[in-house]
Amino acid sequence: MSSWLHLGQALLMGGLLGVIYEILHPLRPRWFSDLLFLWALFFLWTQLVFGLCDGDLRFAYSAALLSGTVVWHLVFGAWLQPVFSLFWQGLFHVCRLILLPLKKTWAKMRKLQNFLFATVKKWVTIKCKKSAVPGNR
């Protein structure tokens, strides 16, 4: 009976991987979201092998993990993908609003930096012209 329970747990872990995949799917660049998903897959697979299977590599549990992920994606993925896409778009807009004052401050600092460098350049140019004239020290 416990093997059926473990198989059900592996399916639920696969469903959790499906949720993680759906959350990370709208992210760009794609390689970054794939890397995060592979990290989550490795973490859950090691939990499955060492926590649930006591260190034995059982093919049926790994297949149940994969099946849970695929079933979640096929059944619920199309419904929840717009929700997660809106979540990431909203988070992006909130981050842009938070960083807007920093961007404006950076632009002002850039103008100040250009002014200071231009002043120093003029000062050095004048200083060099004075020293080039014979008799001025």
Question: Please, could you describe this protein's structure?
Answer:
The chain has 137 residues and is an all-alpha fold. The chain has a domain of 74 residues. Helix content is 87%, strand content 0%. The chain has four helices and no strands. The longest helix is centred in the C-terminal third of the chain and has 56 residues. It is elongated. The mean pLDDT is 82.
Shape: elongated
* Rounded radius of gyration (Å): 30 Å
Q: Give the amount of beta strand, in percent.
A: under 5%
- Counting H and I runs of at least 4 residues, what is the number of helices? 4
Name the structural class: mainly alpha
Write down the oligomeric state: single chain
Report the helical percentage. Answer: over 70%
How would a textbook summarize the main sheet?
Answer: none
What's the mean pLDDT score?
82
Distance between the termini: 99 Å
> Unreliable stretches, pLDDT < 50, 5 or more residues?
none
Number of strands: 0
Helix/strand order, N-terminal first: HHHH
Could you give a short description of this structure?
By secondary structure, the chain is mainly alpha-helical.
